[in-house]
């Protein structure tokens, strides 16, 4: 029957209508033969197909033939090649690929386009030479244009052909180094089709297996973003439909490969930097190695900022290697190692910036730092402290900010661990690092141009807030802060970030019982606090809408807390001296008198504190009344201004509004002390 149909078609080849009638029957017979052979139930000699059949079908595909005949012939090839029978081999010739491609590109009917490229895809599964011959004839650019602009089914078939070529090593070197190929495949990840995205991931996986450098280009083309998006859609345990399971498996393979590649990427970077460490003039070979490996640091940053990759790549080994990289960064920043001649100054700065951004991404996830805190303290923090002394203002700022955030996170976790009765025994190590390596340089850091001092102070705020014991570890360094405070008062608004940070630091320091308060008073603490409170109270009282000035309110409360700590300390010293005199054991009356004299400028605040009493803010009332009570106990009403009509009006207003007995008693004691 096959021979008869073939002869009829050949003898009446110019009769398109007859061919349209005979080709479907011939196709069905060929497909039946292929299926039977695949089953293996009949001897092969009974299932042979004459070569004339293949010749006739090839003629039916040629240019100028009726499109229906073209479509029928292409469909026969597609069907037969879906089987694994040997009959598919009969279609594999040097011209089959270009012929089917011509049908695909020159047909006006989508159905014929799809059938032609599908037939080509089936043949490519049997022999990748078919698709290779198409690329060689029309060019890779033309093929990629068709891939980018094709409909979904066509894109799916073409991705399958590219995947087959890469897996067989055909055209391998050209494809894995072709940037246009990689970017075109990556853009397909925007497709709404799950299967197309899955196949695009597979093609990229095969490219990356053979060419690690293409990972940089892929990341720049937002590969990591596409991976994260589809990972959320294929969460384990979520009901998966259609191609979601296939997509999930393809994603897992790609993610697994990229995670395995990262140590090698970091290793190449470290090896390249090791070879040029301490050198001013790297050789040509070393320069080439640097140009290839250093840009890959951007890949590390992309992966660390990804919620998919970060948990898998941030390990003790990763952090150790990162610390080693910071050692080289120090060398580059100090000029000991000069990469400018090899890669240019811009690339050197980009390397430093990317490296610091990588650790910044880690600081946004404290759990990773606390899990590996010993490695962070041993390998990373010392290098960041050295970078604080960099001549480059940007790196100094960056390092200080990272140190501040890391210190805050590690110490806050230490506090939580102590509350849970866990022990890490690393607090002292962190404090030792800061005390020995950083604090001795703080005088120069605080005198640097803005905003360097802001981050330096924020680090100490974090340190004193989460580890009060640290205050007593370096008392001799705090005089710098007050020097800075007096300077900052002249050049910055009281609501500025720097001033707020200084006040937060002072609050932590004076609240610490182990601090040497006498040293602080001798540095002029009373003078500074008085001036700052005068400004803060004026801002608060002048504001029309108290609730809208949260910053001013918070600043005022912090200053009142500092004032209360100062007055409580003074009151304790005076009380202990009086008790010692009563008991007959003496007592240093001169020290108490000197302390009262040093803090005498604070009496200028009595009127301002009285004006704060009618405040609707309960916290401000509580702090102001406590401070006022301590002031009048220590100094009495030695100023006529304290009894001014305005102040008496404030007392009258607050006495009318308060109902709490304890508050009323406190207010009346203050009035009594003022008039006595």
UniProtKB/TrEMBL annotation:
Give GO terms: molecular function aspect only: kinase activity
Instruction: Using the record's annotation, list all stretches that form the Serine/threonine-protein kinase ULK4/RUNKEL HEAT repeats domain.
Output: 262-471
Q: Which SUPFAM superfamilies match?
A: ARM repeat
Q: Which UniProt keywords apply?
A: Kinase, Transferase
Q: What is the official name of this protein in its record?
A: ULK4 kinase
Which species does the entry assign this protein to? Serilophus lunatus
Encoding gene, per UniProt annotation: Ulk4_0
